[in-house]
């Protein structure tokens, strides 16, 4: 994976993780802050509602008690009821009408929602609701019979006992809303009369809820919600609910609720901001990763390109740009190349010396063979000449022919050795390998084997030898054109010679094709008998041959040319018989180490001029 992609992925992952962690933490912190705000609101609402309701209850209690004690219309109602001997039916109609109007006026004056004048038997004498006048209310009857605080008793019978109760909640009934209810009662001379006043709780709770930002409703003794208010157990994702206990008002419980919708909206807005922030951070991280990757990868890519150029023979050193580390890497690479080049030169020199020793040994061995018949012929001529033998003239022609033939053989051996030892280093240039192979193949296909190259003409069938080319598109190769021609020529000639010894239809096929990693492949296949198994290990050694008049240097020269071009050559036996030689060559030409292995100071001297007979002059 490229460095830019790795940095991009790394920065993206870091940005996403950081945004997720910060966003999650911020979201949870915001939720906790809002939730704690709910608690603070509930506490403030509880304290405010409790204080306000307690004040309202105390105010109501203080309103009615003075009326029962010495108010004019209460005294009048008590007196008229006493005169009627406690029988409300005996009251004068005018008195009833008067009491009805006085109760209504008093309710308005005291800002009470309801005010009821009732007898001890629960008979309503006066009320704002005219329909209630003359009816009996058992709940009010029971209410007036409760023992009053601050009871007063006139033992002479001329006084009156005044009783009052603590404020309580009157639950909703029918169309009546929940209200704060307070009462007072006056008993004297066997007659009891009382006042019951109420003030609705709803408007008060609505006003307090608006002030504290909560919704308030009454719940009577856990019986549920009133007028659509949520029950105490209604806490959910939609709202937060809390029940407020108010002991100052008997039976009053207030359910406070706060909608979670603002929280959900705030969290949704926060989520959107977090996503937008994350996307912005990711975009910034991507830009930074791209810029950083380019700033880091450009020097590395340039260094890799210069390294390939130097390895392919560019006459310069690698330049490190982009930082101290890149410069140090380039310096270390240059030092390594110098060390490897020097080591390769030393190794090549040692190998060359060893090879020359081995070749000199083999040349000496090869030269010994023709020296024996030369010596025998000369010695025979000397003996015949010394005794003036008549057979001297007859043997002279035969002996001199033998000597000249063996001398020519020695000259060929020395010439092949000189050609192998003085093989020049490759002179790389862009070469169209397909064109080179086509020309060599065309030459051999048209003329067969060159008789001068093998010392004899070829025995072919009626159709003659066939040399074919099968090639794919290959890139231009940096190589020595003449040496590539020599490689193909040697392999094709060897294949034709081997095929003609066993087959009437000798055939050689040359195949070209590309390989991965910037290489090309050359395959030369023939339909001959192949190489003997015992010769395969020594196939590319100098003077290793099975030919009667061969020198064994052809494949050695081919191997040396291929190796000096930075390539490889191998042999395998074809499945249907025949020899297969496969060559791999780098497209970029001989690498740096191969070129530095033969410095100018170690190049062999120029070839000595040859004598007219073909042997090198001493």
From TrEMBL:
Keyword field contains Membrane: yes
Topology term for the membrane: Multi-pass membrane protein
Biased composition (Polar residues): 454-463
SMART domains for the chain: HATPase_c, HisKA
Biased composition (Basic and acidic residues): 148-157, 600-610
EC number: 2.7.13.3
Protein name: histidine kinase
Organism listed in the record: Chondromyces apiculatus DSM 436
């Amino acid at each position: 994976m490229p460095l830019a992609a790795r940095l991009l992925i790394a920065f993206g992952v870091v940005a996403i993780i950081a945004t997720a962690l910060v966003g999650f933490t911020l979201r949870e912190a915001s939720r906790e802050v809002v939730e704690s705000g709910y608690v603070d609101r509930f506490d403030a609402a509880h304290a405010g509602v409790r204080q306000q309701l307690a004040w309202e209850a105390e105010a109501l209690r203080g309103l009615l008690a003075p009326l029962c004690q010495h108010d004019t219309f209460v005294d009048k109602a008590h007196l008229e009821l006493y005169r009627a001997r406690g029988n409300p039916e005996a009251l004068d109609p005018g008195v009833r009408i008067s009491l009805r109007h006085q109760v209504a006026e008093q309710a308005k004056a005291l800002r009470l929602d309801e005010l009821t004048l009732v007898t001890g038997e629960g008979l309503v004498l006066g009320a704002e609701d005219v329909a209630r006048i003359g009816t009996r209310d058992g709940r009010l009857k029971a209410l007036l019979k409760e023992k009053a605080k601050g009871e007063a008793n006139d033992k002479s019978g001329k006084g009156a006992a005044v009783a009052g109760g603590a404020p309580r909640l009157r639950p909703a009934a029918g169309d009546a809303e929940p209200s704060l209810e307070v009462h007072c009662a006056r008993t004297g001379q066997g007659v009891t009369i009382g006042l019951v006043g109420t003030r609705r709780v709803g408007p008060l709770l609505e006003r307090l809820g608006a002030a504290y930002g909560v919704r308030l409703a009454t719940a009577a003794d856990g019986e549920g919600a009133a007028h659509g208010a949520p029950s105490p157990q209604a806490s959910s994702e939609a709202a937060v609910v809390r029940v407020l206990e108010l002991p100052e008002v008997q039976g009053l419980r207030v359910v406070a609720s706060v909608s979670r919708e603002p929280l959900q909206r705030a969290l949704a807005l926060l989520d959107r901001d977090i996503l937008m922030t994350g996307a912005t951070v990711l975009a910034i991280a991507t830009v930074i990763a791209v810029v950083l990757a380019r700033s880091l990868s450009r020097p590395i890519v340039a260094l890799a390109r210069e390294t390939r150029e130097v390895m392919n023979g560019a006459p310069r050193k690698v330049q490190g740009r982009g930082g101290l580390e890149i410069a140090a890497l380039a310096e270390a690479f240059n030092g390594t190349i110098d060390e490897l080049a020097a080591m390769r030169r030393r190794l090549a020199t040692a190998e060359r010396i060893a090879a020359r020793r081995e070749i000199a040994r083999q040349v000496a061995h090869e030269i010994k063979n023709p020296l024996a018949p030369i010596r025998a012929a000369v010695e025979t001529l000397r003996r015949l000449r010394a005794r003036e033998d008549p057979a001297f003239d007859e043997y002279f022609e035969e002996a001199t022919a033998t000597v000249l033939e063996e001398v020519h053989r020695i000259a060929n051996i020395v010439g092949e050795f000189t050609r192998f030892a003085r093989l020049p280093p490759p002179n790389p240039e862009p070469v169209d390998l397909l064109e080179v192979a086509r020309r060599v193949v065309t030459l051999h296909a048209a003329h067969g084997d060159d008789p001068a190259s093998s010392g004899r003409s070829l025995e072919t069938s009626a159709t003659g030898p066939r040399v074919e080319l099968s090639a794919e598109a290959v890139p231009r190769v940096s190589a020595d054109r003449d040496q590539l021609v020599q490689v193909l020529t040697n392999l094709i000639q060897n294949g034709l010679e081997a095929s003609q010894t066993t087959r009437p239809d000798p055939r050689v096929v040359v195949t070209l094709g590309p390989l991965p990693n910037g290489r090309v492949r050359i395959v030369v296949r023939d339909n001959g008998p192949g190489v003997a198994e015992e010769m395969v290990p020594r196939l590319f050694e100098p003077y290793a041959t099975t030919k009667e008049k061969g020198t064994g240097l052809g494949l050695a020269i081919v191997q040396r040319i291929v190796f000096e071009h930075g390539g490889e050559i191998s042999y395998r036996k074809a499945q249907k018989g025949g020899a297969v030689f496969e060559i791999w060559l780098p497209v970029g030409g001989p690498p740096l180490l191969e070129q530095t292995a033969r410095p100018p100071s170690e190049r062999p001297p120029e070839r000595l001029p040859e004598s007219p007979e073909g042997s090198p002059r001493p």
